[in-house]
């Protein structure tokens, strides 16, 4: 059965050993572009691993083309991100500056805060300048160019590309991976380059198959893309490489094929090279993937990639977790497809089909609107509360200053202690501050997907 349906069985230990010993290591476009999103230490660590494995690295022509076409956009995005952080830093600092003469906070402590803010500002400015400089003098592009010299595949002529568009349309209509999730890219444009946008992943896949077949090499494909047209997904969680990809590679090339997300690849490559991978780098890679919309769900991979980093199969899946998922709403479109896939992987015929709860696919659109509305509401509430707090801070500071800097005196020359009014102001400011902090945390949790009840 395994030889007939290789996509539904994990790679053997022997296959994985062979893959790491001599298989081609092919990098997706997002792996290269994300180098601009990492800190220097993480970028250096990943580039170092790529260099050490450079004799086995290869990239499709489409990957090189997408990287060179999109790198300036990513550089610009990172520069804007630095600008946003600088603005946030200034916004956070402003209320403190209005209270510099507060009698209960020493001038020394205020100065220390100023020094910290200045260090943060300088570091952010330096990071922004580095990214801006890459527009004209790009160290990442130069490093990759040196590593990948002679390791980039050939492109296609116009006639071949037109045929790929026709074939791709048929594949996408049948939901044959990869790339069918990109079907709306390019719109209705008649230009060839625009019509090809939706078929980028399919072109990458074709070039992988062609090169591997000609070279007679097994393949490790590293990607930051976790959409269901590359992977088998389970209620939004990434479980294993898509079975149809494994089968197509086996039929075309006749050799093993495996895929890794970047963090797992870093970890596994470290073991292969007998070099421990930095935990900070792994955390950063996961964060970047999460915030780029390519979330690697730790729970899923915790069960899907055990010590040998194989697929997730019956003896490796926690059935209690899967049953819990079955008891919840599923975003998958077809009950039959999901049940068939689950039985193929888990081999558990005792699960009741009545446990499957299904949403109309359009529910996903409604959910996105609800999520967008909630985020806007949270942000608006935070802005309004911050404005109210700033106003109260100003009144409080004015009262303190007009009373000669003494908290127990009120303005107007009246030396009678009337501390209650100031206390009420301070209490209200404290309440608002706590509420703002709670809302900011709720917003952050919401954005990170921590609040699962909203997913």
From TrEMBL:
Q: What is this protein called?
A: PIN like domain-containing protein
Q: Which InterPro entries match?
A: PIN_8
| Residue span(s) of domain PIN like | 24-243
An example of a Pfam family matching this protein is PIN_8
């Amino acid at each position: 059965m395994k030889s007939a349906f290789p996509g539904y069985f994990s790679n053997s230990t022997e296959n994985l050993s062979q893959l790491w010993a001599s298989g081609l290591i092919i990098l997706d476009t997002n792996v290269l572009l994300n180098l601009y999103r990492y800190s220097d230490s993480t970028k250096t660590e990943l580039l170092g691993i790529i260099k050490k494995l450079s004799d086995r690295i290869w990239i499709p022509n489409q990957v090189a083309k997408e990287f060179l076409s999109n790198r300036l956009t990513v550089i610009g995005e990172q520069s804007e991100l630095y600008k946003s952080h600088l603005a946030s830093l200034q916004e956070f600092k402003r209320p403190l500056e209005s209270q510099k003469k507060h009698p209960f906070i020493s001038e020394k402590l205020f100065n220390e805060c100023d020094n910290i803010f200045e260090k943060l500002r300088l570091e952010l400015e330096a990071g922004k300048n580095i990214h801006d400089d890459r527009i004209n003098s790009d160290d990442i592009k130069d490093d990759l160019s040196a590593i990948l010299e002679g390791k980039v595949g050939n492109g296609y002529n116009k006639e071949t590309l037109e045929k790929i568009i026709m074939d791709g349309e048929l594949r996408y209509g049948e939901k044959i991976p990869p790339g069918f999730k990109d079907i709306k890219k390019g719109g209705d444009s008649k230009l060839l380059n625009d019509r090809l946008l939706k078929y980028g992943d399919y072109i990458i896949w074709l070039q992988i198959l062609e090169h591997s077949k000609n070279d007679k090499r097994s393949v490790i494909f590293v990607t930051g893309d976790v959409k269901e047209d590359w992977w088998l997904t389970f209620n939004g969680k990434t479980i294993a490489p898509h079975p149809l990809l494994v089968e197509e590679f086996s039929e075309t090339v006749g050799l093993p094929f495996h895929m890794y997300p970047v963090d797992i690849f870093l970890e596994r490559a470290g073991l292969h090279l007998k070099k421990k991978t930095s935990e900070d780098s792994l955390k950063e890679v996961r964060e970047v993937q999460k915030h780029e919309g390519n979330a690697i769900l730790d729970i899923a991979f915790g069960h899907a990639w055990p010590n040998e980093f194989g697929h997730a199969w019956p003896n490796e899946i926690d059935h209690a977790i899967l049953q819990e998922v079955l008891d919840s709403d599923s975003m998958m479109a077809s009950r039959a497809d999901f049940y068939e896939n689950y039985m193929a992987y888990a081999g558990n015929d005792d699960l009741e089909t009545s446990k499957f709860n299904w949403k109309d696919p359009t529910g996903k659109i409604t959910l996105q609107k609800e999520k967008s509305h909630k985020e806007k509401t949270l942000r608006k509430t935070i802005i309004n509360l911050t404005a109210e707090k700033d106003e109260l801070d100003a009144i409080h500071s004015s009262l303190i200053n007009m009373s000669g800097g003494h908290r127990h005196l009120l303005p107007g020359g009246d030396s009678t202690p009337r501390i209650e009014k100031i206390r009420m102001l301070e209490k209200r400011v404290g309440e608002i501050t706590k509420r703002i902090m709670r809302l900011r945390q709720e917003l952050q949790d919401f954005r990170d997907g921590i609040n699962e009840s909203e997913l």
